[in-house]
Amino acid sequence: MLHGMKIAALQMVATPDVDRNLAAAAELVAQAAAQGARLAALPEYFCLMGRRDDDKLAIAEADGHGPIQDALAAMAREHGLWLVGGTLPIHGTQPGRVRNACCVWNPDGERVIRYDKIHLFSFDNGKERYDEARVLEPGDTPATFDAKVDGVDLRVGLAICYDLRFPELFRAMMQPLCDLIVVPAAFTYTTGRDHWELLLRARAVENQCYVLASAQGGEHENGRRTWGHSMVIDPWGEVLSVVDEGPGIAIADLAQTRRDTVRVQLPALAHRKL
Which InterPro entries match (predicted)? Predict the structure, then answer.
């Protein structure tokens, strides 16, 4: 039984410069590995927080190939850990559209899964306006993968940012049950202040699993402000580690004994009817 595998949420304040962002990501991955992390996750848009939405089109890569994907594979291989590569733009099926893709590499640097963000964010309060559907093409398939860490099997689900507001996606990932759900994000300051922790803890409690949430957090060069508060949450909804704002690492132990205790004492998952 696994008693304490360290997992890490890496928080960034990404810029419009891909090379600078890759260097910052590599440094955070190295720091997490030095602290004993066996699985680490970068935030959504870790590779580019552009000045315009369509800046993503200029750096979009083919599926499985490109400098961003190669860099992530190298980080995983160098440090011998599972790396959830935040998100990066991968060419879509329609001209002028990209997929916001979360890819995962194993400790050998091999890509094991790709998840394309299903729910595209839209928000307009009269002061801030966002519409991801302008350049993004939605995915349509939930994604989970099996990771073997120190000889122990771990089932992991993936969600991205706005997906957090759709509990049916998380339920779809729980057949069979996940031990961990990873949520790379770039929540706005406005929505994050009121809803980020609330939603993350709700997803952890209702699915009785760990949640690892890696966020953008701070004032970006493009003028945008993101909420940050990357965190690790246990199956009871307790926040084990958090980084408020600025670059940093939220790291904590994932203990399957804790997960098992919660599910035995309160067998809500076994009581599902729908």
Answer: C-N_Hydrolase, C-N_Hydrolase_sf, Nit1/2_C-N_Hydrolase
